[in-house]
Specification:
Layout lengths: L2 E3 L4 E2 L5 E5 L7 H10 L3 H15 L6 H13 L11 H10 L1 E5 L4 E9 L10 E11 L5 E11 L4 E3 L7 E2 L7 E3 L2 E6 L11 E3 L10 E11 L2 E11 L4 E8 L6 E4 L11 E2 L8 E5 L6 E6 L9 E4 L9 E4 L4 E2 L4 E8 L5 E8 L7 E4 L20 E2 L4 E3 L2 E8 L3 E8 H7 L3
Parallel strand pairs: 9-12
Antiparallel strand pairs: 1-29, 2-29, 3-4, 5-6, 6-7, 7-8, 7-12, 10-11, 11-16, 13-14, 14-15, 15-16, 17-18, 18-19, 19-20, 21-23, 22-23, 23-24, 24-25, 26-28, 27-28, 28-29
Amino acid sequence: MKISKLPIRLHASAKAVIALFLNLPGESRASNLVQRVKSLTENEVRNCLEKLTSDFAGRHRNIRQIFLDHLARIEGDPDFNLSLFTEERKLLLGAFFTKEYSIQAAALFNPSIVPHPDQEGLKSGELRFVMSLRATGEGHISSIVFQTGIFDKQGKIILDPPSKYFTRLLRKPDAVQVDGREMDYELEDSSKLPLNEKVIFPSAKSESMGMEDLRLVKFEDLGEACYYGTYTAYDGRQIQTKLIETRDFNQFSIRTLHGPAIQDKGMALFPEKLDGKYAMISRQGGEKIQIMFSNDLYYWEDFQLLMEPKFDWELLQLGNCGSPIKTEKGWLLLTHGVGVLRTYVISAILLDLDNPAKIIGRLNKPLIMANESEREGYVPNVVYTCGFMLHAGLLLIPYAMSDSATGFVTIVLEDLLKEFKL
């Protein structure tokens, strides 16, 4: 079986910055700052704004609006009394309550990939795709970024050029609360932004320390398509499994999954209902792969064991590498195995089409391993993916190498299916 590693590499960039609100701790720091800005002369305000615009306007889309948005977060405080502030002074004050955050300062890794909702204007044999990536910055806070491109039937990839900016998608204010905790929220419409520019940064307390390892799937039911993405929300102490929903990658909803079966992390939905139920690959207990079914997308009651470690390269831990893909032979599921020295590899299993709780094929060797050029990085000796795609008989597998870069592998599906020796 030929496994083709393509020469394309996506690397983290410290230039990928977004503007965040600067929260000043303590009772007096914010009010002290307001008074200091209030004491500046109009000439000092104007000069400072001119330099600010010169230094930062090229790094952010509509920097003045960002300053005004951040100003709005403190403007209602009666202790500040900004009624006599000019527009320029308000802009400057908003700038003081702003900070840059480098979303990829530490790493860019763990990709997932799905067909793009817009397939217009392509040549014969081409498929446009959307790839999500986990961007990790200062404090190991993870956010979600996107890369789009085209994959053709010869296995060639053309990546779309990056946007000049990275823009955080803002949360609508009407989040749903349960027992005083934020559970669900919507993001503002982002249809005017290029997809490659959009950043989904933590917007709830439950995910304040990261939105990790999004697993995208194009889910189809009754002729309608929706994109779901399961991810791990981390607040610094606890994890939750959450779900991103979108039909067009312009409007996003964030939901929380519930139920006794929602434990651990790394859950991946099947792309369609099975016998009228949602199905999901999961990992309860941290080392084995489970499967579960539910009538309710947001509530999961039970799970059953699907697969446990067997070979030396997976004895420490098993998990999925994204949602299964339907083939004529069965449901193809990529798995990750962890062996000695916490070395990660990618392998595969085949599940019965009618009863996916039954494994009908299992590779006895890794499919993808880190070579010498891929072993060094933020987390050494790791290859990992959160999703793969099938087009024109070719599997396209984007994969992270040592949490420091992302590459691509192509495999002929028919050749892989032969390896299972059904």
